Give the backbone structure.
Amino acid sequence: MKDKMTNQTISGGFIFLIGMAMFTLLGGNYKSQYYLDLYIL
């Protein structure tokens, strides 16, 4: 059970990182900065 949760968390974090990279590439500096500010707040 614990291993399954850990695997889900890791894969979720990995997908999140890929998503952030895509936003940075597609949206450029302004958009990525905007999402970063939202994430920090």
About this structure: Residues 1-41 form one domain. The CA atoms of residues 11 and 17 lie 10 Å apart.
